[in-house]
Amino acid sequence: MKKFLIVLALIILASFIFIPQVFYKVDETNQAIVLRFGAVQATSKNPGLYMKTPFIDQTVYFDKRLLIFDAPPESILTKDKKRLIVDVYARAYISDPVMFYKTLTSETLGKAQAIDILASELRREFASDNQGEIITTKRDEIMQKVESNMDSKYATFGLTLIDVRIKRADFPDEIQESVYNRMRSERKRKADKERAEGAKIDLQVRADVDKTAAILIAEANRDAEKIKGEGDAEAILILANAMEKDPEFYNFQRTLQAYKIFIDSKTTIVLPAESELFQFLENPSILTEK
Amino acid sequence: MVSTIFKMFRQEEPEVDFKKIINGFNSIGSKFKFTGGKLGSLIIVLILAGIALIWVLSGVYTVQPGEQAALKLFGKYQRVQEEGLHWFWPSPVGTTDIVRVNEVRRLQLGVRDSTAILEESLMITGDPDEAGNLGQAPNIVDVQLLVQYNIKDIRSFLYKAVDPIGQTLKDASETALRQVVGSRPIDDVLTDKKEGVQAEAKIILQDLMDKYETGVFITEVKLLNVFAPEQVKDAFDDVVKAEEDKAATINLADAYKEDILPRAEGAASQLLREAESYKATKVADATGEADRFNLVLEQYSKSKAVTRKRIYLEAMEEILPGVTKFIINNEESSNMLQLLQLNNDSNPLGVTP
Question: What is the pLDDT of residues A68-98, one digit of tens each?
Fold first, then answer.
């Protein structure tokens, strides 16, 4: 019984000490190198369970996944002497863990180094680009240039570069205020333009309406005058046709009619006594029939 | 000697077969059972067996609908398990990662009222300058973004990229959004072309997420709110107001048009009707006068002298009664007229000699 317990205890102890020393596990997300007194013995890039010499060999693990190299936002001067605050990141993975270990020793150190390279490459590149290009037009192109420059540098550390991106390109605070001023003036221009366009359309519409209305009235007047003229002409024709039959009688009759209208109570008429009207007053002799 | 044996195992592919190990443990256990033969050892064996049983049972897991489980054995990916009740080696031999792959997840950028994920939601737009060069007159705009996504590839999602739906998604979303916003004028983002911005950002974001092998599928990219920055808000509001002012002015002008034109048309018709009535009246009057003249003439011509006399006298009867009359002889007439003029200068007709 005692012997059995000792054996059992030994087995348990051995398994706790030896198993981690003999076996090592490489996860899907990891890769490992095995070192013996500093010399690289093996590389395990594929996941699974591996064996090593206990106590002598040491395993160093590295991430196999795509790593984030996020440079802190940095103030840079563009070619056209404008200042921008640029925040960039790179994505790379450790493709050669041995080289990575030899050059950069640990992931933390490697990360700092990779970020330094990224930052200095960017500064160099942006110094030859204009602000507008960085913000808009050539962002992809610039990034590709940076990427190809960084590619070989990263390769010397056992890193494979996948992507470099400008996450943010912002104006520094002191420039921001002047941008706001420009935005304000642009908006004011736009607002003024809108209002002026409104006024323009307003004036145009009103002028058009006034014109149309004036033309309508004038044309109506024209047509009306013509119609009146027709009426006058027709009336003249009708009357003339009638009068032509005896102009002398018309003259006589119409003149008498006119007398009736223009001779009124205020009129004073001097009549010669010998006029035909008074023939019987002056000369009663004609009462007797001739 | 020992190291050479181990060296044999040290290859690229893992060489350790877990089944052998398990069998080994089992055979050790069975040896104790048969050689010990004592009650104490039996109890210990039973305890160990119980621990082993509990360990084995801890490998039972459930995959709910909408979930997937990725299975790893000694760190090496085995397969994906769909929904149901399953068993797999528990830790430290196996690893079971259950992920809600179909769940629609959300990432919000630059949201104010809840937690702000972006420290800065202001971004530069690529407005053109007077000459039309893009990016020369940049504006600043405040954009809040919603990204919805799920997991399309659990294996990539778990093993391929660091922090796929944290830092990686956030970085990529911000990159995509700022790239799109930076390539357009501010008015595109603020108003008319939001849809286009969203669609373009979605394409760029999905490309980035695929490039980084995150296994993430972007279902929607949506601009939640787009504002002009606080400092220039008034100026932007004024543009909106100006647009409304313009519309109002145009409406008033149209109202004027609708007021004036019908009135003018009415006035024109009135003029025409009046003229027509004038014409008709004139013609009728003339016709009447002509008819009357004709009728009178017909009778007149039958006895001219008498009728003429009668008409004349009748007219005189009508005219002369109210009129001031002077009847004079020929010889005195000139004197009389002078007298008249001197005495009665109110005479409106002013009969002159």
Answer: 998 888 888 888 888 888 888 999 999 999 9
List all residues 6 or more positions away from A65 whose beta carbon is below 8 Å from its beta carbon: A29, A93, B159, B160, B161, B162
The amino acid that residue A184 corresponds to is R
CB atoms within 10 A of CB A35: 18
d(C-alpha B235, C-alpha B233), whole Å: 5
Residue A201 exposed, middle or buried by CB count within 10 Å (0-12, 13-18, 19+): middle
Q: Do B283 and A136 touch (CB under 8 A)?
A: no
Residue type, B73: L
Supply the pTM of this predicted model. 0.70
Interface of B with A in 217-276 (CB under 8 A): 228-229, 231-232, 235-236, 238-239, 241-243, 245-250, 252-254, 256-257, 260-261, 263-265, 267-272, 274-276
Categorise residue B132: left if φ over 0, alpha if ψ from -120 to 50, beta otherwise: left
ipTM: 0.73
**Positive or negative torsion for Cα A230, A233, A236, A241:** negative
Residues of B in contact with A250 (CB under 8 A): 293
Burial of A290 (0-12, 13-18, 19+ CB in 10 A): exposed
Tens digit of pLDDT for each residue in A166-202? 888 888 888 888 889 989 998 999 999 999 999 999 9
Q: How many CB atoms lie within 10 A of CB B341?
A: 14
With CB atoms and an 8 Å threshold, state whether A268 touches B324.
yes
Instruction: Look up residue A55 and give its amino acid.
Output: F
